[in-house]
Design a protein that fits this description.
The chain is α+β, with helices and mostly antiparallel strands and 174 residues long. It has 5 helices and 7 strands.
C-alpha cells in the first residue's frame, strides 16, 4: 500500500515504510486553508496547516510511502489519530517523478472544505501572521511551515503558496 504525504509527512513521516518516492498528484494544489486546533494551535487560537484544494490543471508535489501489508492497520490507526482534525482517507493516483517513473494508487489524508476545521482562503500576510502566532501541543505552527518549505526545497520541489507564506513570516520567526 502507498500513502501520499504532502504536509508534515514530507519532513516527519513517523511510521515505518519500505520505500519512499517523490511524486505528484494531479488536479490538486496544497494550501494552508485548514485550521489546526489539536496540533499546531488550540481552540480559540488555531494554527493553519496544509490541505489539498481541487484545482483543474493543478499539481501537488509530495512523497509516496510504501508500507508493509502486515503493518498497514497499525500505521493507518496511528495516522487516523495524527490527522484527526478534519482529515479523511481518500484514494488518489500518484505519478512518480524519479527516474523509474510510473504511477500507483495511494491513500491520502485530505481535509475537504466541508470539514469543521476548514479555514478557507485568506491573504498570504494574514495566514502567515496566524501561523507566526499559533502554538499547539505539537509545537509552534511556524515550525510546521518552515520544515515543510525546507523539505520541499530538499526534494527540489516548487510551491509558490508555501514559499510565499514563509517569506511573509515576521522577521525573526523564520
Amino acid at each position: 500500500m502507498w500513502i501520499f504525504g504532502y504536509g508534515s509527512l514530507i519532513w516527519r513521516p513517523d511510521f515505518p515504510f519500505i520505500e519512499r518516492r517523490p511524486c505528484t498528484i494531479r488536479g490538486f494544489v496544497r494550501r494552508f486553508w485548514q485550521a489546526s486546533v489539536d496540533h499546531r494551535g488550540v481552540p480559540g487560537a488555531p494554527g493553519r496547516v496544509a490541505t489539498l484544494i481541487e484545482a483543474p490543471g493543478g499539481e501537488c508535489f509530495g512523497l509516496a510511502f510504501r508500507i508493509e501489508g502486515a503493518a498497514k492497520d497499525e500505521i493507518l490507526k496511528k495516522l487516523d489519530v495524527r490527522e484527526r482534525g478534519g482529515y479523511r482517507q481518500h484514494p488518489v493516483t500518484v505519478h512518480f517523478t524519479d527516474a523509474a517513473g510510473g504511477s500507483a494508487e495511494a491513500m491520502v489524508y485530505w481535509a475537504t472544505p466541508q470539514n469543521r476545521n476548514y479555514a478557507g482562503p485568506a491573504p498570504v500576510e494574514r495566514i502567515a501572521a496566524q501561523i507566526a502566532g499559533a502554538v499547539g501541543p505539537s509545537g509552534p505552527n511556524v515550525d510546521y511551515l518552515v520544515n515543510l518549505a525546507e523539505g520541499l526545497r530538499g526534494w527540489g520541489a516548487q510551491d509558490e503558496h508555501v514559499f510565499a507564506l514563509e517569506a511573509a513570516l515576521p522577521k525573526g520567526r523564520r
